[in-house]
Amino acid sequence: MLKVNTDVLAELIDQDEVMFATLHKNQVVKSGEKVAGTRVIPLFVREEIVTKAEEVLKKDTLIEVLPLKPFKVGLVTTGSEVYSGIIKDEFGPVLKRKFSNLGSTVVKQLFSDDDEDMIADCIRELLDEGVDMIGVTGGMSVDPDDKTPTGIRKAGGEIVLYGAPVLPGAMFLLAYIGKIPVVGLPGCVMYSKTSIFDLIVPRILAGETPTREDIKKLAHGGLCRSCEGCSYPNCGYGKTC
């Protein structure tokens, strides 16, 4: 997970003869990828310019690359049609692949009817299993029959935010039960290559505790588009980059 201290960056390049360019922060990068580049603009600069740049960089860390922790993930898949076997679960395989790509493992998946008590019981069972994160799928819209948010609350979830300024992913929910993050994942996560999942889940795996303010800030750049040919198709910035 790439972290960039934008305050330090702004102060560094405030000297017109120094440039420093980075990738967008809060995206997953791989070993060997270039994350930043720097140079002086003219052929040479005065020594005091270099000294000032060094002083700025001593104030705080400019760039960090945080490792993603390998989480044990539990899934609760809700929905009467899936629970009764009328339709096949498509969410589980997608999430298992997505978490695997981030270095984590789905250790158990439970299925629940559209019943808040059953959803809560499934969440508690996964907590007893010792998972590091719980993903709950289905029942995340505003339909009165959707019981997922209530089930998460009944299991002891403290809601950080229900509804994110991201498309696709507006019906996202983030809660915590103690220190265990619970993410309510809308259907778009199953169908869209880039969604709220790709903007928030890696930050949790990197050890962050996203706040309501953090998620609200995603509104600027939160229209996710996978750009054809882009080296960073899951950055979340799409063509706004």
Describe the structure.
- The chain is α/β, with parallel strands linked by helices and 241 residues long.
- The chain has helices at 6-12, 47-59, 80-83, 91-101, 116-129, 148-154, 188-191, 196-205, 212-216, and strands at residues 2-4, 18-22, 36-40, 63-65, 72-78, 105-112, 133-137, 158-162, 173-177, 180-185.
- It folds into 2 domains: 2-65, no CATH class; 72-219, Molybdenum Cofactor Biosythetic Enzyme, Chain A (3-Layer(aba) Sandwich).
- The strands form 3 sheets. Strands 6-5-7-10-9-8 form a 6-stranded mixed sheet, sandwiched between helices. Strands 1-4 form a two-stranded antiparallel sheet. Strands 2-3 form a two-stranded antiparallel ribbon.
- It starts with a strand and ends in a 25-residue tail after the last helix.
- 36% of the residues are buried.
- Mean pLDDT is 89; it is low at 227-234.
